Amino acid sequence: MCPFNSAAFPDSLAIAKEGVLTIGTIDDIQKLHIRSIPLGEQARLICHQEQSRTFAICSLKYNPASAEESEMHFARLLDDQTFEFISTYPLDTYEFGCYIISCCFAEDNNVYYCVGTAYVLPEENEPTKGRTLVFSVEDGKLQLIAEKETEGAVYCLNAFNGKLLAAINQKIQLYKRFIVVGDLMKSISLLIYKHGEGAIEERARDYNANWMSAAEILDDDIYLDRKKISLGTQPITLWTFSSKNTTHVFAASDRPTEIYSNNKKLLYSNVNLKEVSHMCPFNSAAFPDSLAIAKEGVLTIGTIDDIQKLHIRSIPLGEQARLICHQEQSRTFAICSLKYNPASAEESEMHFARLLDDQTFEFISTYPLDTYEFGCYIISCCFAEDNNVYYCVGTAYVLPEENEPTKGRTLVFSVEDGKLQLIAEKETEGAVYCLNAFNGKLLAAINQKIQLYKRFIVVGDLMKSISLLIYKHGEGAIEERARDYNANWMSAAEILDDDIYLGAENNFNLFAVWKNSEGATDEERGRLEVVDEYHLGEFVNRFRHGSLVMCLPNSDAGQIPTVIFGTINGVIGVIASLPNEQYFFLDKLQSNLKKVIKGVGGLNHEQWRSFNKEKKTVDARNFLDGDLIKSFVDLNRSKMDDISKAMDVSVEELCERVEELTRLH
Fold this sequence. Notes:
By secondary structure, the chain is mainly beta. It has six helices and 48 strands. Strands 1, 2, 3, 4, 23, 24 and 25 form a seven-stranded mixed beta sheet that branches. Strands 5-6-7-8 form a four-stranded antiparallel beta sheet, with no helix packed on it. A four-stranded antiparallel beta sheet has the order 9-10-11-12, with no helix packed on it. Strand 40 (about 490-495) and strand 41 form a beta hairpin. Helix 2 (about 580-595) packs across helix 5. One of its GO terms (cellular component) is nucleus. GO terms for molecular function: nucleic acid binding. Belongs to the DDB1 family.
């Protein structure tokens, strides 16, 4: 990857991958606009030079006609407007391009392309020879003006104080003040160049043993603060670029990631591409502040927004999708949809169960529902002693003359050759409002009943809050074990653990109840006690266990269970079950933050978060406001110091603890 800027492609990136050069910008939602430039060979390295309006690439072309020279390697020059090859420098037999940069030297205003190479001989385990090549661009042609043979591969090059810094095998060399080095087996070292002595001295080292593939400087004092994150399974190349006056690092690998620093902490953001081999920034009128990213068959151009947002891609359906479910085994989505038919007065609404390919998002199969039949719920599940996976759909017949549906169906579909096949159906005496896989069976909520088809079950009743049921296998019966006797109009419910159950109700509140398994009497054991209450301010209609973020290997956050919630306003949020020590620490931090952070329009935080409904208002309890807590890192230093003194904890530790919390979402 390399950045470049031109009138046609402002602030863009050129990205090399097998057979393709991709020009791209990263847009405001961190999604990449794509324009493909077929090369006919594999682009391994790419660099942009604004002064000559060119790209230089190191590429590999296969030659099936020659057994001895099956691979041919080149340094090539491309026009950054037409993307046509305009000059070629063939590398020697067995010589590979390892690194490429554009730079200038002390007391020389010209700009040069510098290429580091390695001779990869079949009989050698490690290259013992390489070259550093310096090219100028004259009249649109690559001109070799200097070369230096080295006793090893030139794995990395960088411009440094008007000189050329080269990493040769495991050595650092300067040609003709702080340097960060990623040693293959010894992790990161911080070096300083002593100009008067012409020597390089090690100043600091990370003594953890890491097999390094890349290292980069973000700013002056955070690069020795150890962070660890998994970025895929392939070797990683790091490239710096500037966006919105901030330095970012692009990690090119099979799971490309943008890395940047905010308030002395490292943040990571996935890029919605796969297997990026190279990147460079560039800037032009059409693509300001952009990146060009090379991947297989494509050159992608993108821009990066100021903040992290969800990647959004709209798939026009031409009808209203009411329910959706993904099935990994068949690589499909199943949806229940509604389509209006203005041509028919009797059938103005038509309802379907449809199958979509999860790569192309095209309709590949359709099952039409009956007249007046609505899809109410859909899941993907399997059954006992059956390894196949099925889509199960619950429906209701909504007749104009009925206040409550008296009929519904449970439909079971398999996916065979990309088609929906109805393999079982069961008519019910009411709407099938909810379905769930349960001990190899299908659990269905039908109007006001819970039924099992063919051990703890939590039910959110519309008017009667949360109930805990148990399935007695020997008797084939479902029995109520405990309930919350408060009146709550429920919108969603979820099990957090064996004894704690989460609920959402129609006054935009969240609450949790506790099952007292050790109660002395049947009455105590049969009552679910409310232990947590909180005003969210959003109408929640779904809870799901899981997470939307990558898990850091060395982070405690990955061990914290989380539940995702979705609301009718399109909000997606996370609820995390924190350990006691972390909860009490963050509760104290939240109390101190409320003293220095005032709500918009003078809104009182405690009043806003109080559990509130028609006949009950109580202070929030056992819930923390994650948005308030993470705002600590955005405070100015003086306010941070005030909170630090009040808690008797250093600012650095507070930032680290808050950063750990932000990794949950």
